[in-house]
Amino acid sequence: MRRLLELQQKLVPDLTQVLRERYMLLRSIYHLQPIGRRGLAQAMNTTERILRAEVELLKETGLLTVTAAGMHLSGEGQQVLDDMEPLVGELFGLTDLAEGLQKKLGIPEVIVVQGDADQSPWVKEELGRVGARVLKQVVQEGDIVAVTGGTSIASVAKHLTPSASFKNVQFVPARGGLGERVELQANSLAAAMAEKTGATYRLLHVPDRLHPEALQTLLKEPQVQDVLSLLRDTRIVLHGIGDALTMARRRNYSEEELAELVEAGAVSESFGYYFNEAGEIVHRMPTIGLQLEEVHKAETVLSIAGGESKAKAILSFAKQSCQNVLITDEGAARALLSTRL
Amino acid sequence: MRRLLELQQKLVPDLTQVLRERYMLLRSIYHLQPIGRRGLAQAMNTTERILRAEVELLKETGLLTVTAAGMHLSGEGQQVLDDMEPLVGELFGLTDLAEGLQKKLGIPEVIVVQGDADQSPWVKEELGRVGARVLKQVVQEGDIVAVTGGTSIASVAKHLTPSASFKNVQFVPARGGLGERVELQANSLAAAMAEKTGATYRLLHVPDRLHPEALQTLLKEPQVQDVLSLLRDTRIVLHGIGDALTMARRRNYSEEELAELVEAGAVSESFGYYFNEAGEIVHRMPTIGLQLEEVHKAETVLSIAGGESKAKAILSFAKQSCQNVLITDEGAARALLSTRL
DNA sequence: TTGATCGGGACATTTTTTGTCCCTGTGTAT
DNA sequence: ATACACAGGGACAAAAAATGTCCCGATCAA
Fold first, then answer.
1. Is there a domain that residue B88 lies in?
2. Of A124, A281, A333, B16, which sees the most CB atoms within 10 A?
3. What is the CATH number of the domain that holds B19?
């Protein structure tokens, strides 16, 4: 199959390009439906007219239906999109990117989805979709799955579906309150995932920014103890990787604190830990939950992060070399590969 | 792979068509090189201008080189052409045609090449190329290969290459003089094939149109006896199939004789035998050589015939049901399948 | 040396693509 | 119930691309 695509690339380069574009179009529609011409044109940054021609063609082929509310993929369109999945890697050269990252970062499995989360919002959706698929594959009955917060993980939650694989699985938030928006907090996501899959969940009720004394008190609570003991048996960790400063700002760090972080050389964040370029911990959020040692002990650590802007952070966290699977996007992958170690 | 082509068909309907055209173009150049724009345009019946655009594109891709003498395939172009071989069947639906013929004619293996020998001269070259490939595959050390005359078999001879497989192989003309042009006679082709492959050959020196008495005398000749005994051990028969009247005319039959043939319902010719629609012998050339019974006894009978005009003849000869492999072209195949038995 | 054929340049003409604007209907939030 | 925003589709001029046609000097073969 790879051979066929290579041949086509040589013999009909322009049409192969068209194939790529049509795929992207189909996928955009899938993620944005129902969507109108103008909105879609903006999302894919082309002009309205040019998109219109494409849409008309796909409509004639029967891959999408057009209603007054906007465009939808038809059943067949959905089918085609699904069928294309195994092709996409080759078509966009993502297989090569994945292999490159695998070697460079020393991560056993790397999956690269097409696009750049910084540029197209629905790439995050793709990351989530793929993340959900992978999670479903690796999860086993009775597993404890620790999840962090963040938009990428939220996207995974969104795309999870009920499955027999999730029998007796418990979703547990990896860390207590980290000062994010509710819908992006680990607690909410653990709950959402459990709800989507038919599994159960536990919560870590820890207010943001506790004083050390208060933390100690809280630690003695049976509920908290309970969750912490579960976390020690975590088999799967599902986490996002953030850019250090972005995360700190989102968590309302003061200017002083930000300056300290910069001073310390923090570039990435995950589980409430901040890492420098070398992958060393330079700061940690004052909260309770999954410890980094426990992450290292987990059988499967699934990292999800995309967008060119995340490249440095991904590289930094990879130095921890605790990951089994990295799911990222083309933008981040290209940026990573063009950085020398 | 088939699935991939179907997918592409849905997403980029033009793609397969263009791919087909480019393939045909590449192949035409291969067979006609060096060839100029105008000549090529005529051969492929398109206009010069439209071909020019194609050529420029392929030139940029590096698949062909352009000299003052005309266009040539580059090494890469040659490579692409070779690599496409396994695709061609699916791309042109030839696999389906071949399967259809296999069922309809009851021949174990049918290979259909793209094109119509009646319309494009180089399709005959393709038949020859494929024929040569197949022969190389089936031939074994020490084999006796009986060959007939005709343009198709001449084309096979042209495309044969030296190979270890042809060790101790003897090429033997299937029948003595059949009144054709020298370069198409069985004798010449046997010699040519032997020369190309590094094998040996024998000749049947029998003048055209002998009187029965003379034939009897000739049969007693040791040389002739020798060859005839070899023919009885033939393991591989490589033969063309002709249209009865065309062959008769080529052999300078008189008007009366032609009328007789028509009367008898002759439609096909091979080995000097003329067959009617039902596959029954209605006439035989007065010469010596391979007998039909011996053809039936041979392990491998490789028939080669192409062009829509040959369809009836192929069907007629197939009634003999002595063939193992039929190599034909799209034109003949389509015509055959649209005829009911 | 001659004559046919080569690739490439040039250009008018046709066809296709693209940009732009407007219209009417429908879903949705107020 | 009523705006209002956004949906798709029609229309058409402008721009761009494809195509038909002719010519030219170079080059190869007879």
1. no
2. A333
3. 1.10.10.10
Whether the Cβ atoms of residue B275 and residue B319 lie closer than 8 Å to each other? yes
**A-chain residue closest to B23, CA distance:** A11
CA distance A62 to chain B (A): 9
pLDDT at res. B259 = 93
d(CA A295, CA A323): 9
The CA distances from residue B145 to B2, B34, B195, B239, B240, in Å, are 37, 34, 14, 10, 14
Distance B47 CA to C18 C1' (A): 27
Q: How far off is chain A from B150, nearest CA to CA, in Å?
A: 35
Could you give the number of structural domains in chain B?
A: 2
Are residues A61 and B10, on separate chains, in Cβ contact within 8 Å?
Answer: yes
Bases along strand D below 7 A from a protein CB: 6-9, 11, 18-22, 26-29
d(CA B124, CA B115): 9
Q: Are residues A277 and A320 in the same domain?
A: yes
- For B15, the domain range is 1-82
pLDDT band at B90 (very low <50, low <70, confident <90, very high): confident
What is the pLDDT averaged over residues B282-310? 92
What residues have CB less than 8 Å from A43, skipping those under 6 apart? A28, A32, A35, A120, A121, A122
Let me know if residue A88 belongs to a domain: no
Place of tokens 């030296």: B162
Most B CBs within 10 A among A1, A2, A3, A4, hence the mutation to make, goes to A4
Cβ neighbours, 10 Å, residue B253:
17
Percent of chain B whose pLDDT exceeds 70: 100
Q: How far apart are CA B289 and CA B301, in angstroms?
A: 16
pLDDT of res. A128: 94
Do B44 and B68 fall within a single domain? Answer: yes
**Which are the contacts of B249, defined by CB distance < 8 A and separation ≥ 6?**
B258
- Using CA atoms, how far apart are residues B240 and B147, in angstroms rounded to an integer? 9
Residue B189: give its domain's CATH number: 3.40.50.1360
Q: In what order do the strands lie in the sheet with A109-113?
A: A109-113, A325-329, A300-304, A236-240, A144-147, A170-173, A200-201
Binning pLDDT at 50, 70 and 90, where does residue B341 land? low
| Domain end point (choices B82, B115, B144) | B82
The answer to which of A103-107, B157-161, B287-291 has the lowest mean pLDDT is: B287-291
The answer to whether position B87 is within a domain reads no
Query: Is there a single domain that holds both residue B58 and residue B130?
Result: no
| Domain presence at residue A299 | yes
A261-297 per-residue burial string, b: 16 or more CB within 10 A, e: under 16: beebebbbbbbbbbbbeebeebbebebbbbbbebbee
> How many Å from the CA of A3 to C1' of D15?
38
Residues of chain A with confidence (pLDDT) below 70: 341
pTM (2 d.p.): 0.79
- My answer on whether A68 and A188 are in the same domain is no
| A22 reaches B (C-beta below 8 A) | yes
DSSP A249-282: HHTT--HHHHHHHHHHTEEEEETTEEEETTS-EE
Residues A59 and A171 in one domain: no
**Number of residues assigned to chain B:** 341
Protein residues with beta carbon less than 7 Å from any atom of strand C: A 47-50, 53, 67-69; B 35-39, 49, 56, 59, 66-71
How crowded is residue B131: how many other Cβ atoms within 10 Å of its Cβ?
26
The pair of structure tokens assigned to B213 is 């008495």
Q: How far is A46 from chain B (nearest CA, A)?
A: 19
Same-domain pairing of A36 and A147: no
